[in-house]
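During the reporting period the student researcher (J.K.) took over the structure-prediction task from the postdoctoral fellow and processed the backlog of single-chain submissions. One of the processed entries is reproduced below for the supervisory committee.
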Amino acid sequence: MKRLLLVLSFCFVIVGVKAQNIWKPISYSGTFLGAGPDGSIYCYDNDITCSKDEGATWQITLPAYDYRYNYYCFTVSPEGRIYLMEDKEHRMWHSDNNGLTWQYSSPIPLGEFYTATHIYAASNNIIVGSTTFNNLFWTTDGGVTWQITELGESDCAIQDLVVKENGDVYFCLYNYNRMLDQGVYHSTINDMHNWEVVAFDGILRSPQVAHQAGKDEWQ
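J.K. obtained the following structure tokens:
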């Protein structure tokens, strides 16, 4: 057993050394937004810009003077479609040609003062987003129709959001009054009104968010 552990440890070291060689520093002063399956890199620094040559040159995907858009709610689907949230009209814009032309979805049924905080595209059909009021909104038909649910957590904010291609949805809830993570929650795109805690830190106070006892650590 000890010999096996030594062999595995040596393999991990070799893999780790080789993996270091794939990283290349890219000089950019803005915020990294995402990357496409073709290697395109998207960043934000007044404008949304795109590089297709590992940062050697950059082209403007969307100029900063258009104030309709929430530039930090940006995502790229596995198919390469880029998405951007428009908060004023509560619509999702998308482009299939790196921002040369844009199309928008049907309106998302959010309140007037709601602002999106995260969006994530698991595919060109499945997109999930969150708001400042802890709502989740989603579509399974590429933005033709939208659904919304409320989490009922008044002292918390959705800190991060991930959606897998198989429809699994995860988000992290942060309690800003107590300054701690309240848990990582999981559901599926077909059951967005019921959630379970899969990683837990803090005290769950809201009965609106369902969880299963015993799932307080990652397995």
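The committee noted the following: The chain has two domains: 26-150, 157-219.
J.K. will present the remaining backlog at the next meeting.
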